[in-house]
Every structure is written in structure tokens, then in C-alpha cells.
Amino acid sequence: MLTRKRIAALAVTSLLLAGHAVAADKKVVAVSIPAADHGWTAGIVYHAQAAAKEINAAFPNVDVVVKTSPSATAQVSALEDLSAGRKLDALVILPHTSEELTTPVKAVKDAGTFVTVVDRGLNDPSIQDLYLAGDNIAVGRNTAKYMIDKLGGKGNLVVLRGIPTVIDDERIKGFQDAIKGTELKVLDIQYANWNSDDAFKLMQDYLAKYPQIDAVWANDDDMLLGVLEAVKESGRKDIKLALGGNGMKDIVKKVIDGDAMTPVETPYPPAMIKTAIYMTVANLIGQAPIRGNVKLDAPLITQENAQEYYFPDSPF
Prior knowledge:
Number of helices: 10
Low-confidence stretches: 16-23
Radius of gyration: 21 Å
Number of strands: 10
CATH class of the largest domain: Alpha Beta
Distance between the termini: 25 Å
Largest sheet: 6 strands, parallel
CATH topology of the largest domain: Rossmann fold
Helix content: 40-55%
Shape: elongated
Number of domains: 2
Mean pLDDT: 91
């Protein structure tokens, strides 16, 4: 398992070694990502644009073009626009949906483009040259292990899911597998759509329904914000832990400050898009062929290492 920090360092090193050896012909790297429709995707846009600015300034013969799309249909059109009238040397894409983007990305690939897929895979993995994502099972597993330790292996839990996706399924699997054999009991588990308002309402329902809740896991930080607000308004004192996941700066700051209810976090950083762009460019100009699947580690963010995961200027 490679950490985000180590992978980024390797990619940057490859670029630095490339130096002035960039070919005379300008290399075009298209980056296609969802628009900022919630906190995590806002972070994706922020880090993609930062990578493009840095690379375009450092390497005049590389042109990184970032295009955001509010829907899968719009992203298909964006791919057509990006490839119209020019050859793309590489495409870095975080698909809105796997099904709708697989065929359009294959068309780009068939034109001779190096394809990097981030986070949400395509239906046909053979299309991609490089795949980079976080470890969703580890997000759930490492959160559960911390809860087991802090609660002494017993207690009542409520869980908030995101939306029906592979990402959500993996996080839940990691969590549920980890608590097997313990006396931690999941009282309820429902979807809150990775949305703060929906999570607030669902947590209110949980609080009304269950008189004793020892811990809450919202498997995404947008939902955790809603959970924390509902708990605060309720005045309940029985809840010892409320944990999330993804590495939102507001939650990481709580960890830095030693918040008693949210003392740890698990990363699924939107900065992964920046790592993917750097690795893709390194592959083009760094004489260091990079292929295959890269899974970023998901270690616990604690007060001791939280500064490494804290990006105060990021929207997420």
C-alpha cells in the first residue's frame, strides 16, 4: 500500500528529473471532473486547478486543461469538446457515473490517448492505463477499530450511509467486518445521501428513537456536520464518539484541536486528483512509465499527524 505523500513525491521527482528534456511538441493533458456540487467535489476542483496551474507554469511544453461538468451527460459532451480538433496525449477523468462514461472514454483511448481514471472506475477497466483511488474498505475498517478500542468493544451505534454506490458499500463492509465478534451493536443504518441536511434530519430521528447511543458513524464528513449539529441541539450527553470520513478541513481541525467527540478522522482526500495529474504528466515527460492500479492508504488522522492532512485554503 502506498501513501498519498509517497506517491506524490515519486511523481514530482519524476517531473523534476525530466527538467528541460520535454519534447518540443506541446503535450496536452485533459482533466475531466464533476463540478463542485458538494464539499468533496469542490475539493476535487480546487486541487485539479492547482495542479494545472503549477504544471503549466513549470513546464511550458505541457498544457493541462481542466473541464468541470455538472452531470454525466455534460461530461460526455465535455470529452467531445476537449478532443475536438486536437490530439489529447492524456486524459485524467473522475467519471460522474461508470456506465455513461465508459464508452466515451474508450473512444478517447482508441484515438491513442493515455487514460488515467480516478476514484469511480469504468465498467471496462481495460480502458484505463492508470487507476488511482482511496481505500474505502480501510476507511470503514480503521474507523471501526478505533471505536472498538475507545468503547471497550461494546456499545450501541447508529450509522449513516451515503448513496447506493460501490464506494458506500465498501466503506460499510469494512466497518461491519471489523465489528464482527464484538459487543458493538448497530441499532440502525440508513442512507443520508452524503448530505448535511439529510444527515441532520436522520440523526434527529435516531435521537428520538433510541434513548442510549454510544457512538455515531457518518461515513462522509458532509453528513457528520449534520450529525454534530443534531447532537448539539438535542443536548444529549450519552454520545461519546461521532466520527466521519474523507478528510474535510473542518473535521481535521477538530482533530487538531483535540475535540472529545471527534478525536480522529480517516482520509479520502480530494487531493488524490492532484496526485493523479502529476503521475500522468510524469508518465508523459519523465521517462518513467507508470501503469496499473494505485490505492491510497487510509491511516487514522490523529492529533499527532493531522497537520499533514490539513489544507485550510481548500474549500473542503
